[in-house]
Amino acid sequence: MSVLNKNQLSALLKRRHDLIPGGAHTYSKGDDQFPSNAPKAAVKGRGAYVWCEDGKKYLDWCMGLRSVSLGHVYPAVNKAVKVQMDQGTNFGRPHLTEFLLADRITKLLPGVEMVKFAKNGSTVTTAATKLARAYTGRKYIAVCKSQPFFSYDDWFIGTTDCGAGIPAEIKKLTLTFEYNNYASLETLFKEYPDQIACVILEPVTMVEPKDNFLKKIEILTKKNKAVFIIDEMITGFRFDLLGAVKIYDLKPDLVTYGKGIANGYSLAVLGGKKEIMERGGIQHNKERVFLISTTHGAETTAIAAALATIDEMQKKKVQEHFWKIGDQIKTGMEKLIKKYDLTGLIEVVGFAPNLFMNFRDTDGAISFVLKTIFLQETIKRGLLFQGAFPLSYSHKSAEVVKTLKVMDEVMAVYKKVLADKNRNKYLVGEAIKPVFRKFN
Ligand SMILES: Cc1ncc(COP(=O)(O)O)c(C=O)c1O
Asked: Which residues belong to the signal peptide in this entry (predicted)?
């Protein structure tokens, strides 16, 4: 960084774990989630590229945990943000942009009649569950356990191996069901009759819904008078401008958005039916729900960014771009997997706008050591890669070509690694660890 000389930079980096628990503000950005040759910090980004503290430029396959959906420093968004910055960022009464964005979103997204803004996805998923509990007067939450993450709050983190600090009484209030397993949710409704406040899940992550799973659980949830919550944090504004609920014809009672909606500026949205949402309002006679009430939730620059991002998405048909470019990656990767005879050992799973890679050992088990080696080799060749392809609108065919060229070289190395029983010797540092683990 220009403001720091080499010694100051190295001293600061050495202290990062003394300054910040985990050395980062999201666990998935941490050192234990990257090979040791990964850059330690980002310095600046432009489009699909990021420059890091090691002085190198990388093709960015992280894109701010999928939040930067158009590209780094995207001109149309930053222009709108700068205009808003000069008008002020926060006030004692709502700013007009709050009403503008609320109006825009409620007109755009079918079924979203009211909205509430926040800074993080966890805030809005948690708010959705609280609202559902208040609306139904029930205490249990049913969450889809096959999907990785919904919130860092107790109701969800208590279902993972990271339960420290969460009382057992709280953990018991969250029940789990499996994706594509209708019976697992049906059983919960039988075991806890009239006690489940809501069902929350992402519409899709890695696999297609089977046997009309999504529609069937929507019907089951509504029949049991529980609130049906769809978390579109990843799929919203990515699979379709109107989200994956459009693709799968879902009619959730509440829906949550975040990543991608404001091109990396901090904005998350809880939306849904007026009948439920208005319980957080001040114009009814029922008991009040203290819904989302934060100092920074409606900070004007993020709202300006969201308005500009939605404009750009509509103008440029950004979601069509995601499907097209994602398909190019998937096809190219599958060709390479065949070329190197790695079928079953390396998999590209998920959907074109949100592809992931799995790394399996010859016994079929997911291998963190092999994943680390693969990532290490991609990073060495200029991709900041974490095993997924979170596309932005700035990832064009040229970036696909560059990526596939690197992947070709990496798979050639990987093939040799697989032929050697002592994989650990190829690791330059420690292997990546699961995010949700009880001990470090
Ligand atoms: C599906 C899903 N829901 C909720 C969240 C939480 O969002 P945030 O990190 O903005 O709190 C995430 C974040 O990764 C997510 O992927």
From this structure: none
- Please give the DSSP secondary-structure letter assigned to residue 210: -
Query: In this structure, which residue's CA is closest to atom 3 in ligand 1?
Result: 150
Q: Where does CATH 3.40.640.10 sit in the chain?
A: 90-298
Q: Where are the CATH 3.90.1150.10 domain residues in the chain? A: 6-73+317-426
413-421 contacts at long range (C-beta below 8 A, 24 or more positions apart) = 413/377, 414/340, 414/342, 414/346, 414/370, 414/373, 414/374, 414/377, 415/340, 415/341, 415/342, 417/370, 417/373, 418/342, 418/345, 418/362, 418/370
CATH code for the part of the protein at 90-298 = 3.40.640.10
Tell me the pTM: 0.97
Is the distance from CB of 38 to CB of 379 less than 8 angstroms? yes
Minimal-distance CA residue to ligand 1 atom 2: 150
Separation CA 320–CA 52 (nearest Å): 30
* pLDDT, mean of residues 155-170: 97
Question: 366 forms bridges with which residues in the sheet?
Answer: 360
The Cα angle at residue 153 between residues 119 and 128, in degrees rounded to 5: 65
Q: How far is the CA of 255 from the centre of ligand 1 (A)?
A: 13
Predicted local confidence at residue 2, as pLDDT = 61
Say yes or no to pLDDT of 272 above 90: yes
**Of 204, 261, 205, 320, which Cα lies nearest the Cα of 66?**
261
**Domain 6-73+317-426 is found in CATH 3.90.1150.10:** yes
Cα distance between residue 101 and residue 115, in whole Å: 9
Atom 7 of ligand 1, residue of closest alpha carbon:
121
Mean pLDDT of 219-248: 98
Name the residue type at position 66. R
Report whether residue 280 contacts ligand 1, using a CB cutoff of 6 Å. no
The percentage of residues in the chain with a pLDDT greater than 90, rounded to a whole number, is 99
DSSP 2-53: TTS-HHHHHHHHHTHHHHSGGGSSSGGGSGGGS-TTS-S-EEEEEBTEEEET
